Amino acid sequence: MEKNEKRRWIAAFLVGCAILGISLYNGTRKTLPQVGENALPQSELNVIYVSGAVNHPGVVKISGGLRIIDAINAAGGLSPEADASKINMAQAVKDGMQILVPAQNKVTAETVGKSPVLDGQGRGNKININSAGKQELDQLPGVGAAMAERIIEYRNNHGGFRNLEDLKKVNGIGEAKFEKIKDKISL
Fold first, then answer.
1. In the chain, helix, strand, coil percent, each to 5?
2. Long-range CB contacts (< 8 A, 24+ apart) of 30-36?
3. How far apart are alpha carbons 53 and 106 in whole angstroms?
4. Which residue among 37, 89, 156, 170 is least enclosed by CB atoms within 10 Å?
5. How far apart are the first and last CA of the chain?
6. Which of helix, strand or coil describes residue 33?
7. Are 39 and 32 spatial neighbours (Cβ–Cβ below 8 Å)?
């Protein structure tokens, strides 16, 4: 073979190897699942349960790094009776979290006939341990600023309280303290 013909064969071989390599590389890349308009790896999805005063309560899937406002919007947004002032919309979401959106001063069968807690403005209502801020929690008997912070920390780390008895899982709240405040709190 001539020298030029040998070079052509070598060049053709190298081009063929490059094409084969690119084809194999593209064929082995994983196809990412489609979520909305963006492709996200499954590991970056957070599964969140949004309940309460939202238009479409239920389980939603949103990407990591988003906030509570994004999870609420994925659940159809706030319903007209929602009390958005009791939710930290800027809080980052965590996988497995539950977000409970409270309704505005809702009277339920649970609150009828119970002694109310005054909110400082003469209105009677219970303090919602799933949405109350530090100042509201501090109004409860035997709950100071440090205890209020522990309640909020527990709530954030565990996706909220599922029942009133869960409050006893907070460090520093035993049976005696719980008995003092159980009629003044709600979920």
1. 40, 20, 40
2. 35/61, 35/63
3. 11
4. 37
5. 87
6. coil
7. yes
